[in-house]
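task queued by scheduler; priority normal; single chain, no ligands, no partner chains; default sampling; output format set to structure tokens
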Amino acid sequence: MELRAACPDDASVVSDLALRSKGHWGYDEAFLEACRADLTWQPAQMDTITLAESEGEVVGFFSLVGSELDALFVTPEAIGQGFGASLLKAALSQARAQGIEAIEFDADPQAVPFYARFRAVVVGESPSTSIAGRSLPRMRIATTL
């Protein structure tokens, strides 16, 4: 796996990957459509994105904005192969290099066990910006594993 900074031309790849990754967890079409706007990145937003490539294909990405892990997604085909762990470790390393001691993020409930493996803890809840009445676990993880 190789990491690289995203460029403006990667916006559609990132957006498609995020929606496909979310769909992997069994959400129905109505739910995914409600999430589409939140999972769509614009070319101007690519400066916060780090892509993971394997054999020339994008297999995942993360977005780190200050101490906020804004996104971390892996293609459905690559889930369970260690790419998510590598991306999370890269995000933590990037934050640590910026002097950040911990990052926080809103996690999909399906992803809580994944983040917990890296000592992330739930510190509260955040209202979903996609689905009225839905709350997301707010998590925190130290940048040192």
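post-processing summary
- The radius of gyration is 14 Å.
- The mean pLDDT is 96.
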